[in-house]
Design brief:
By secondary structure, the protein is α+β, with helices and mostly antiparallel strands. The protein contains 8 helices and 10 strands.
């Protein structure tokens, strides 16, 4: 037993040439691209879920949200191995001796603080994102608002970090991978593999991570996506996010007494299932695209929402409050913006892929609209109320 030492390591304790700006900047470039994609697609997703939209979120293309949210989750997942390798490559700098001169000491402290913020925000974003995709919510705060707030912290500190490191990034990316010009003086030992080998392994890990979740969105990849949370299976060929039992939908609620209420002021129309089936039926191919990254296309048949709104003479562009039979839960009530309510593809669906809606997919009736986040595609509809 000779190696026991209580003092913290010093930079010289990490002699591997692999822990170099050459590796850090190359992995960092792809990490930056992943975070950039996550940020932009995240802004889109956040906006799409806003009840009020000063600029209406478009209803076309119907698969737009499916694409942007798929990119969001795939890029975020691929970023996990990239972040791990990047942190590994800069780890020795944590133990670098602080400069003596006061001005340089202050600058060094500021840089370390900004990196601490960036690393904390990045870890928070990736961890909460993955946990959300796995439908595991062990926290007490709102996922959406905290993930959104920390996205600004992450992207802000990322921009500062890139600006501060730009000279080093340019120099390292401009030189050969194996060049040692920018290396720490003590990093001279050959690693277990070459830098090219380490980078190749890193890209492979990021690719495997991306593939592991991409199958939740890309049908052809389903077979290889061992870790996709939803494997494309579920009643009527569509995954289920929340079952009727979990939402506490009872037989009585959807039995003979079921009515769909269409309300505008004191105008009120109550429709039975038979009334709904007797109206003109339309069939649309529209995807369900969950914020958690899985998505699936399906054929929906039912009544146009606009036809229902006409029963209470709702004006064009009117916003609609959609309420579920579900007794409680954050998604029992959603807002259907005017442009979505008026889109002719927006349906109160009664059937899915040619069969009456399965209870878990929202029987007797559920909302389905083009380019709308899955979380807002309300199941077990009770009421459509036109805002005045
Ligand atoms: N009433 C109600 N509707 C809901 C939900 C819910 O929890 N309650 N979950 C939503 C979510 S998050 C998604 S992704 C879709 C999934 O629809 P599916 O289960 O039919 O695939 O339903 C949405 N509709
Ligand atoms: Mo969802």
């Amino acid at each position: 037993m000779s190696g026991l030492r209580l003092a913290p390591p010093t930079e010289a304790d990490f002699p591997s040439r692999l822990r170099s700006p050459s590796v850090t900047s190359r992995v960092g470039l792809w990490l930056g691209i992943s975070f950039g994609l996550c940020f932009l697609t995240g802004l889109i997703s956040h906006y799409a879920q806003n009840p009020t939209q000063p600029i209406p979120f478009p209803t076309s293309p119907s698969w737009g949200y499916r694409l942007t949210q798929g990119i969001h989750v795939v890029a975020g997942t691929a970023a996990v191995p990239l972040l791990l390798v990047k942190l590994w490559s800069v780890y020795p700098l944590l133990f670098r001796r602080p400069p003596r001169e006061v001005r340089r000491l202050v600058l060094d402290g500021l840089e370390r603080a900004s990196i601490a913020v960036l690393v904390a925000a990045a870890i928070f974003q990736l961890a909460t994102g993955l946990m959300n995709a796995a439908q595991w919510y062990p926290w007490g705060f709102s996922f959406r608002s905290s993930h959104y707030a920390l996205a600004w912290v992450a992207i802000g500190s990322l921009v500062v970090h890139v600006a501060v490191k730009l000279p080093m990034i340019r120099s390292a990316l401009g030189a050969d991978v194996e060049a040692s010009d920018n290396d720490r003086p003590t990093a001279v030992a050959a690693g277990a593999l070459s830098r090219r080998g380490l980078l190749r392994t890193t890209w492979l890990a990021a690719g495997v991570a991306a593939l592991a979740v991409a199958g939740g969105t890309v049908p052809l990849l389903r077979k290889v996506s061992l870790f996709a949370v939803r494997d494309g299976e579920g009643p009527q060929g569509l995954p289920v996010n929340k079952t009727a039992a979990a939402a506490r939908i009872t037989d009585e609620m959807v039995g003979a007494d079921y009515r769909l209420e269409i309300v505008r002021g004191d105008q009120r129309v109550s429709l039975t299932r038979e009334d709904l089936v007797a109206m003109t039926q339309r069939t649309e191919s529209l995807p369900i695209a969950c914020v958690e990254g899985w998505s699936a296309g399906a054929q929906w048949t039912g009544v146009r929402v606009r036809d229902l709104l006409d029963l209470v003479e709702a004006p064009a562009g009117a916003e609609v409050e959609v309420t579920s039979l579900q007794p409680s839960g954050p998604f029992r009530r959603t807002i259907l913006q005017g442009n979505f309510a008026d889109d002719e593809r927006t349906l109160v669906a009664l059937a899915l892929n040619g069969q009456a809606l399965n209870r878990d997919h929202g029987e007797p009736a559920r909302l389905i609209a083009p380019n709308r986040p899955g979380v807002l595609q309300t199941k077990w509809l009770a009421r459509l109320e036109v805002a005045l």
